[in-house]
Design goal:
This protein is of the alpha/beta class. The protein has one domain: TIM Barrel (Alpha-Beta Barrel), CATH 3.20.20.70. 46% of the residues lie in helices and 16% in strands. The protein is built from 13 helices and twelve strands. It has helices spanning 2-12, 29-39, 43-61, 73-76, 79-95, 110-121, 147-160, 176-179, 193-205, 225-234, 272-275, 281-284, 293-314, and strands at 16-18, 67-68, 99-106, 124-126, 129-131, 138-141, 163-169, 182-184, 190-192, 216-220, 240-242, 266-270. An eight-stranded parallel barrel has the order 1-2-3-6-7-10-11-12, surrounded by seven helices. Strands 4-5 form a two-stranded antiparallel ribbon. A two-stranded antiparallel ribbon has the order 8-9.
């Protein structure tokens, strides 16, 4: 799957993943009203509105981008109907030939970790039938439990030719409370914990190689560009998933350190900056309203492509 993702980035020239992270207050009123008219004030109505919202955004952007990243918590909050909307979103994105990164941030050990990996990346056999529970192409994983938590995911990735993005340096302000703490290496050096985790990602990925990159990638926030430069060197064969663009403050000029010299090796996520772009004055000035909200998402993707490509060309 890493080969497919890399090829799609080359083809589109857009190292961009659209974060399909719907919040209730992001939904245009007419979508929610229509769903409530059909199913009443219910979780089922919210789930229908979420899928309609996602579908419109995907329809408006799929030809520009290689991948999407639905964040499962935004669906889980609406219970089983929300999870059904998550699955429908994954399936619809696959119909549009998009790579799907399941932002699930799972982290456990042994059989529990294996079960999470199967749920999101694998298949389940019941008698003579085989089923795909959620069917994403990549999953995000928390490494805090160590190799016991990662290896079951790696095993499924090898079997299914799927991939991981392991949390290394996250974009949130308090990430440094743990991730920046200095630890002593076996050779006596002191390094931040995130550098050690990056080295482990490189190790885990060393026997899971695609043509150019490993199946095992890393999550490194756009809000820490200098750390991204260090981690790019530590993980030369890993794709870096970069959250924090746009709404969290990251911009194209902050991203160049995450990429290799050829402009590959990183994919940048924007969620509300794209899916809620219709609420921004700059797009309202271009004729965007609630009813053509997805057109704003397309404009936001186009602007993001220009921002990133300009930064890469000027570095």
């Amino acid at each position: 799957m890493i080969n497919i993702l890399n090829d799609k980035i080359k083809k589109t020239g857009a190292p961009i993943v659209v974060g399909l992270d719907p919040m209730l207050n992001y939904l245009p009123k007419h979508l929610l009203d229509a769903a409530i008219a059909e199913k009443g004030e219910s979780l089922e109505a919210v789930a229908d509105a979420i899928f309609a919202y996602n579908k419109a955004i995907v329809d408006a952007t799929y030809d520009l981008i290689p991948a999407v990243k639905p964040q499962i918590a935004m669906y889980e909050q609406f219970g089983l109907p929300g999870l059904e909307a998550f699955k429908k979103t994954v399936d619809y994105c696959h119909e549009k030939d998009l790579v799907v990164i399941g932002d699930v941030k799972r982290g456990d050990i042994g059989s529990t970790s294996a079960a999470y990996a199967t749920a999101h990346l694998g298949n389940v056999t019941v008698g003579s039938q085989t089923f795909t529970p959620f069917g994403e192409d990549f999953a995000t994983v928390n490494p805090y439990l160590g190799s016991d938590g990662i290896n079951p995911f790696v095993d499924v990735c090898k079997k299914e030719r799927k991939g991981l993005f392991i949390l290394v340096k996250t974009s949130n302000p308090s990430s440094g409370e743990f991730q920046d703490k200095l630890i002593k290496t076996e050779d006596g050096r002191e390094i931040p914990l995130y550098e050690y985790v990056g080295a482990m990602v490189d190790k885990w990925g060393s026997d899971c190689m695609g043509d150019e990159f490993s199946y095992i990638g890393a999550v490194v926030g756009a809000t820490y560009p200098e750390m991204g430069k260090v981690l790019r060197d530590i993980m030369p064969h890993s794709y870096i998933l970069v959250p924090g663009y746009g709404a969290q403050g990251g911009k194209g000029a902050d991203l160049v350190n995450f990429f290799n010299e050829d402009g590959l090796g990183a994919i940048v996520n924007s969620s509300r900056g794209i899916i809620a772009a219709y609420t921004k004055d700059e797009y309202k000035a271009q004729g965007i309203t609630d009813t053509n909200f997805a057109d704003a998402s397309r404009l936001a993707v186009e602007d993001m492509i220009v921002d990133i490509s300009t930064a890469l060309n000027n570095r």
